[in-house]
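Standup notes
- DV: blocked on the single-chain target, sequence here:
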Amino acid sequence: MKVLEALKQASQDLKNKPSSNKDDASSSAIKALLELQTEADNILSNDPSLFTLSQYISTLKPLVETLQRSQGNSLRSFLRRRVNRHDISRVAESIEHEIQAWIDRESLENLVKSLNSKTLISEDETIKLLRQFERRIEQGFSRDLQDLVLRSKIFNALEYVLCDYKSSKRIREASAFAVSALVQFNKDVFVGEVLMGPTIRSLISIGSYSSLQVLNSLIRSIKSALVDEIDIPKIITFLSSEELLIKIVAVDCVLEIGYFGRKEAIEAMLKEGLVMKLVELQRSEELGGDLIDMGRFDEGENNGVCVGGVEIESKEKKGTCREKRFLETHPFASCVARFAIQLEVGEGLRQRERRAFKLEILKLVRESCVSDAETATILAEVLWGSTP
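- DV (later): unblocked, structure below
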């Protein structure tokens, strides 16, 4: 794989700067690729999937030789060199594409073997392969890569490991991130796989910070259809977790469900005591608080400048910037109002359902607060909103 990566880099260098100067930096790229040609009979010709690469490398040598011979200061020589450099750049780009395809085949084959192996394989090595695959998929859609992914049945292998309680937690989490990357890579193909399979149940059963991060990502990608498959009571229990990070990501999950969830999902959350749990989290001195009391703007600052030094257009945006920075250190601040706002601006509810849920939330706030001051603050935030 290191050799293939080096050859890919050589083809990139040659594509970007073909030169007739033997002392130029591109000469090393040319040398590396032409040396591969000397091994073509042994390495490339015997593999049908490498036949195209062999043809491109065979085409490269005469082009390079022609460029190196094309000396002279005449207009004709100049134009000939320009055309020849263009041809070399085009062939180098094709070689780069074929080498990347070779790398993808080798990487996927290694990953599938690692995931399907019944023998003991290094956990760190398997996770390394999973993260390499995730990074490759995140580079964007490619029809060739999609065909390779489908032929390899990598999704089935990832799903099996994700659902296998005998696998290590780290490998299951890394597999979960790879599944999420596949959904982003092509929603038309992999959303159905996620909805019909055990992926969502497995993510919730793992119940870790990483698995809930993946769940949030999938909610944003698949929206209401995925929310319908979520075990709502289990999500609400994460708000009472002893691990702070799990509580933080659980709040994010609740907010995502609030934005995309239909009536049944919102009713289920309220039935499980969501508002009371959010009030308790908001009451936290170190991590909670009220955005409505922090003040919108810094007095004496120029309009159009955010507290963090980032240029923005108005005081409203400056206030939004300050709120985001405050929420980074106080993740439970105004979480009741933030949930209510998600219902109001979200995609899952009808207008009359939004009004009914807002009244229900106001009622539950009154029942959950321990003081008149707390009640008044949270009610004001819910009624007027804590963000612009």
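- Follow-up: The chain has 21 helices and no strands.
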